[in-house]
Design a protein that fits this description.
This protein is mainly β and about 230 residues long. The chain has helices spanning about 10-20, 90-100, 210-215; strands at about 25-30, 45, 60, 65, 80, 85-90, 105-115, 115-130, 140-145, 155, 165-170, 180-185, 200-205, 225-230. It is about 10% helix and about 30% strand. It binds zinc ion (ZN).
């Protein structure tokens, strides 16, 4: 998984090796996701979001997942919603909280059933508290499929171009163990009404410390990308 970094200045090497330590990894889950989010009753503050695409929506409620999708949580410790929200079971939430890892908080998770209302689940949503600066323009294979004037949404990978995610060394100096990207990925169909929209979503970027916690718990089902850090 290790990716060579390129360096021009010796001090940058020192700063990054001291503060970041190792390669960073980003993940998102493209398979077996739980239907959840704006169309299931989760609420968002849109006051600072882009009016055209919805990027920057800020969640204001517990995560609500569709009760029809609970079978996807069975036998798992970590799962993702269709918007790449990360759900962890309560034991995993405790492990993360006690690990000393930084940059996250938890929200409750509810299942919504038509006619039967909402039930709280023994799961927690892992929420990142730190938004990274935009990626380096040296990033390749990750581009907006429907560019918005805000420049922030609809990023998607392209099969014909290898995905190479690059950050400037100065932008990851104060990184936390859990972060989200400034760029928002995925399909966009925002019509102004959040409860009837498909919003884009940021990707998670985590350090090897959190990756190791997931690995030790036998978590599978995620795609991991090594992050290249360059001095520029
Ligand atoms: Zn936008």
């Amino acid at each position: 998984m290790r990716v060579p970094r390129t360096w021009r200045l010796p001090w940058a090497r020192m700063v990054v090796q001291t503060v970041v330590g190792e390669d960073l990894l980003m993940f998102y889950n493209m398979h077996d996701t739980v239907f959840a989010g704006p169309r299931v009753g989760t609420t968002y503050d849109m006051s600072e979001a882009c009016r055209r695409c919805g990027a920057g929506a800020r969640q204001t409620s517990a995560m609500v997942v569709d009760g029809e999708y609970l079978h996807i949580l069975e036998g798992r410790r970590v799962a993702a919603t269709c918007y790449n929200d990360i759900l962890v079971d309560e034991a995993m939430a405790r492990t993360l909280a006690e690990s000393g890892a930084t940059g996250f908080s938890f929200r409750s998770v509810f299942a919504a059933f038509e006619k039967r209302g909402h039930f709280q689940l023994p799961w927690r949503q892992l929420c990142a508290t730190h938004i990274l600066p935009p990626m380096s323009p040296r990033t390749t294979g990750l581009e907006p499929y429907k560019p918005c004037p805000c420049g922030r949404s609809s990023f998607t990978t392209r099969p014909e171009i290898p995905t190479r995610i690059v950050y400037r060394a100065s932008d990851v100096v104060d990184i936390r163990d859990v972060n989200v990207t400034w760029e928002w990925l995925g399909h966009v169909d925002f019509n102004g009404d959040v409860s009837d929209s498909v919003l884009p979503y940021p990707a998670f970027l985590i350090t090897p410390k959190v990756w190791g916690i997931f690995r030790d718990a036998g978590v599978t089902g995620f795609d991991w990308f090594p992050i290249r850090v360059v001095d520029e």
